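INTERNAL AUDIT FORM
Audit reference: QA-55
Scope: verify that the stored structure record matches its stored sequence.
Auditor: D.O.
Record contents follow.
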Amino acid sequence: MEKDYKELYRATKVRLDEQKRINMMLERDNKNLVTENARLRKNVQLLEEVYQKYAPYIKKDYDSASSAISMVLSTRVYDYGDRLSVRALTILKGLDIEVFGELVTFTPNQILMCRNSGKKTLEEIENLLQSLGLKLGMKIVYNPQDKIYMVRTD
């Protein structure tokens, strides 16, 4: 009889431990979802701010999507300095990059070849670009007459 109670106790303890482990996993996943949701909301807010800033300057002969991207490409990188580390900003300054239109023309390997640049710096820059709907290695054309950057479609 005592043996049955010990087995029952052990089985109950195992089930409780398993339930605790599952609860901890669910809590962790929930925290990750909340963090991801907050990050996405912040990115949307930043894009809306950029759009509001440049909305009056959008030319009517472009479609709105390409105009929005053109405005983001013309935005100064240093306006987003709070989202980049000092190391990343120093690297961009060393490359003489002023606006996102200049930054996206670089490839990941070109960024990594810079002094003091590494995987984390590259990841940081790529995350910022991704949050703005951009990526490294894009084909960009600068129109000096309109002072606007456009994505090349060829």
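Auditor finding: record pair retrieved intact. Helices lie at 2-54, 64-73, 86-94, 100-103, 108-112, 119-131.
Action required: none
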